[in-house]
Amino acid sequence: MILILGGTTEGRLAVRVIDAAGTPYWYSTRGELQQIECKHGTHITGALDAATMQTFCEENEVRLLVDAAHPFATELHGTVAAVAASLDLPVVRVERVYEIPGQDRNDGGMTIRWCTDYDDAVRQLEADGITRLLALTGVQTIAKLRDYWTRHDCWFRILHRDESLEKAAQQDFPADRLVYYEDEDEAALIARLQPQAILTKESGESGGFPQKVAAAQSAGIPVYAVRRPALPAGFETVTGEFGLRKAIERLVPGFFPLRSGFTTGACATAASKAALLALLGRDVGEKVDVLFPDGEALALPVKDVKAERVDRATATVVKDGGDDPDVTDGCSVVATVAFSDSPGIHFFRGEGVGCVTLPGLGLPVGGPAINRVPRQMMEQNLSALYDGGLDIMISVPGGRELARRTFNAKVGVIGGISIIGSSGIVRPFSNEAFVEAIRKEIEVAVAVGVEQLVINSGAKSEAFLRARFPALPLQAFVHYGNFIGETLKIAAEQQVPRVTMGIMLGKAVKLAEGHLDTHSKTVVMNKPFLKDVAADAGCSPAAAEAIDRLTLARELWKGLSEEDARRFFTAILDRCYAACETVYPASLTILLLDEDGNVFEV
Fold first, then answer.
1. Is 460 helix (H, G, I), strand (E, B) or coil?
2. How many percent of the chain have pLDDT more than 90?
3. Is residue 403 assigned to a domain?
4. Which of 180, 300, 444, 549 makes a 20 to 30 Å CA pair with 332?
């Protein structure tokens, strides 16, 4: 069991990640105001002191504490640390992203006066002669700043709710000096109140800190910022969804039914960075931190690093694809990095990496099959270390053999695998990855001049359809799996003029009901709907009886009379067309296939 301590944006992030496991957990907030849907979690409210939290953890067999509370919730952080130490529990801290550096400067750009606490803030405000202040620190800090606001002009921005108004009144703070989050943004407030400075907390991106600084900068006034307090020792810090999931997979094995992994693009980036560090004479260590496309930094283990010459180094990362059945899981991704006289970063194809032979992938024909996002990841991570020219060669020993088990030939990648990944993370049986593969196949089909796309659910239906359309090239046939709607949307975006869809009856009855995603986890066969279709089509009462006896939809091929079958299947196809027209308005033909490849069409 996992206990999340939340009530913040980070708390909602933690719930989103942990809910995906489908496993029970607890989510605790101090108050009852936060509305959040925990599909598999139980939301509890009320402050937890150390004794209460420890008892709760013992009674509910909590194995991991996730601290996703506000960075300034120092009392709660201390309670979590004490309970974790007493029960020997790990703690994962979901930390905010803090992009603005801790600096104090006024060079025509940002002006930030960093303060260790609120007493220090008052001392600095007084020393700098600030007598007109806009405090963006919340209602809880009115008491802490009493010594200042009783002697100077000061406004506090708070939430416009009874609890906050009551706290302000308890401190005898003037009601006419309260302003509200709901009414106007920082820029408008500053323009109206004309303060000499603003006071805020180092609350990170999710706390709006960059926006507050930008508003003050635009108005030409300084920012006094109270630094976030240090976290207790022993907390493992993550800054995003992937890091949290990976930490849970390691610390609470089995909580997620399937492990996530890293893409070949992420592995190539880690290997490239390790090689460059070695080339620069810097320590690499067992792991390398990689910045991912969403801004999160994660560490990947490095198997081997060596500087071959003064101007070239090589590193290897072994791909851990988690529990996704990808052919590249466990393969070695090798990066050789060398200094270049040409500016910028240049990519080369090594052993086992495919060569691009067709347009449509957004990559140069004749170049290495290293996709756009992995290239961007390598460019971002390596340019942060070295601003000169670099040559990067990516190799995957055994990649040529692995490629035979992929669809690379369809998209014109020959001689090896592609270095791919749009997020850097492999989600087990990832829907995102499947849809991205569909997109690439359709883009290549369009690039090679395909005007009729034949989409199908898998290898069996494709074999039937290829026999029906022998003149069409390989690139014309695309598997949609369960993602009929996404496939048709992509075809519409790519302006494919004609689409023929082959569909088995099991998916057709779901599509007819309007479900463009036909996965069994999303939708199941609806017998009442099918009986309504049969009745509307004028089928005999025997059709309804046949539907009641169904275990699988395909049984209807033999369970209906010839006349009922004609009426029923025609009605099903009519509804399939109606569902598909919402996402693909161009020329669409739907072929209803039975298990032997026979076709029914309207």
1. helix
2. 54
3. yes
4. 444
DSSP 95: P
Q: 27: which residues sit within 8 A by CB, 6+ positions away?
A: 3, 4, 6, 11, 14, 15, 36, 38, 41, 42, 43, 44
* Helix extents (H) in 254-384: 264-279, 372-383
378: Cβ–Cβ under 8 A, 6 or more apart, which residues? 268, 269, 272, 273, 345, 347, 392
Q: Are 508 and 501 in contact (CB under 8 A)?
A: no
Q: Quote the DSSP letter at residue 295.
A: S
pLDDT at 106 over 50: no
DSSP 227: P
Contact 423, 377 (CB under 8 A): no
Quote the domain boundaries for residue 551.
431-600
Domain membership of residue 524 (yes or no) is: yes
In this predicted model, what pLDDT tens digit does every residue of 255-280 receive, in sequence order? 888 888 899 999 999 999 999 999 99
Task: Report the alpha-carbon distance of residue 488 to residue 584 in Å, rounded.
Answer: 6
Residue 100 lies in a domain: no
Contact 270, 256 (CB under 8 A): no
Residues 568 and 447 in one domain: yes
As a dihedral over the C-alpha atoms of residue 338, residue 339, residue 341, residue 346, rounded to 10 degrees, the angle is 50
pLDDT grade for 427, boundaries at 50, 70 and 90: confident
Q: Which of 289, 256, 230, 295 is nearest to 64 (CA)?
A: 256
Task: Based on the fold, state whether residues 72 and 47 are members of the same structural domain.
Answer: yes
Q: Are 210 and 236 in contact (CB under 8 A)?
A: no
d(CA 539, CA 602): 17
| Same domain as 473, residue 394 | no
Report the predicted TM-score, pTM, of the whole model to 2 decimal places. Answer: 0.67
H helix or E strand, kind and range, residue 124:
helix 118-127
485 and 383, same domain (yes or no): no
Q: What is the DSSP letter of 372?
A: H
Least confident of 15-19, 91-95, 110-114, 388-392: 110-114
Instruction: Say how many Å lie between the first and final Cα of the chain, rounded.
Output: 54
Residues 416 and 443 in one domain: no
- Contact (CB, 8 A) for 321 and 329: yes
Sign of the Cα pseudo-torsion (477, 408, 379, 244, in order): positive
Distance CA 98, CA 100 (A): 6
* SS3 state of residue 82: helix
DSSP letter, residue 426: E
Please name every residue paired with 178 in a beta bridge, in sequence order, or none if there are none.
156
Rounded CA gap, 36 and 579, in Å? 32
Tell me, what's the pLDDT at 436? 80
- Do residues 586 and 497 touch, judged by C-beta distance below 8 A? yes
For residue 48, give Cα distances in angstroms to 11, 53, 56, 88, 99: 16, 5, 9, 18, 31
The pLDDT confidence band at residue 208, using thresholds 50, 70 and 90, is: confident
Looking up residue 149, the CATH number of its domain turns out to be 3.40.50.1380
Look at the block and give the residue holding tokens 């690499």: 284
pLDDT at 345 over 50: yes
Q: CA neighbours within 13 Å on the CB side: how many for 162?
A: 1
38 and 182 assigned to the same domain: no
- What value does the mean pLDDT take over residues 512-527? 80
